[in-house]
Prior knowledge:
Elements: H1 19-28, H2 37-53, E1 57-61, H3 67-75, E2 80-85, H4 88-97, E3 104-108, H5 111-120, E4 125-131, H6 152-157, E5 161-166, H7 169-183, E6 190-192, H8 200-207, E7 212-218
Helix pairs in contact: 1-7, 2-5
Bound molecules: S-adenosylmethionine (SAM).
Amino acid sequence: xxxxxxxxxxNQTEIHSDLEKVVRRHLENPFQHKxxxxxxxxxxQIKEMADRHGGELIFDSGCGSGESTxxxxxxxxECFVVGMxxxxxxxxxxxxxxxxxxxxxxxxxxxxxxxxxxxxxDWRLKQHYILYPNPWPKKNHFKxxxxxxxxxxxxLALGGEIILRSNWKLYLEELALxxxxxxxxxxxxxxxxxxxxxxxxxxxxxESEQELFELRVNQ
Length: 219
Ligand SMILES: C[S@@+](CC[C@H](N)C(=O)[O-])C[C@H]1O[C@@H](n2cnc3c(N)ncnc32)[C@H](O)[C@@H]1O
């Protein structure tokens, strides 16, 4: 049966005209962010498990129902993978489906808070997966996209290879430009045709015959 997931509907056809201004403003002004109390406890939980494991860290931010986190953990057995999503229901399903893993953790968390705390604690990631982030396709929602958000500076400060996938090419092209403004390094968006789906959203889009894209940012 063919899936029938809707393609991106947007009133924006080219790079957002405010991108450079917004990204430069965020780069010039440190992100002042007050994290929620609950996030302090979640961060402590991640820290304890990561310390116990001792391997390099990989984040899977906005992991949804956790398929990607488990796959990444299997591929990088020497690393500790943290899958985080703010959806209580998705994380509940993830923990129901997957047994606790030796080298991964699936937990409900606000990623903006966890990124901020990780930066403040001088954490550096080996890789950072952001798979099929909410596209916020309306032009006036630009500041909700990760590269238009003040947390973009935390994403960069966490370092490592940032691996993004989307069914909206323009989102990744914008992020590539934002990363170039910040780091001076160019990177290009690739069209991908995955044989094994890394996540449920990837499966849904692929089965709906949508074109899929990947961007890797190395700083
Ligand atoms: C389109 S879904 C993709 C899920 C998964 N990565 C996949 O590919 O199947 C985007 C996910 O990001 C999560 N998300 C969005 N903003 C978030 C935030 N600030 N903190 C944590 N999770 C967030 C949503 O709850 C949602 O599960």
